[in-house]
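**User:** Here is a favour to ask of a fellow structure person. Please take any protein you like and set down a full record of it. No explanation is needed for now; the record alone will do.

**Assistant:**
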Amino acid sequence: MKESEDELIHKIGEHLHTLRTEKGLSQMDVASAAGIDKSAYQRIERGRTNPSIKMLDRVVRATGTSLRDFFSTLPQSEGDF
């Protein structure tokens, strides 16, 4: 995986963490609502796995957010377009 891809996966995980904690949800809350086990969710949140769009959609919706809103609020880095 290219470094920029790794950075994006890590950024997605950090954003999920922020979103989850702002809403007062536990990792188990999100994992359960998304229909995955807690360890799978933890790997996504820690940026250790590259979730499919389908999986990311399930996880993001479990926080009460749409995928569109999730990406529109994803912090941008210099060089991102």
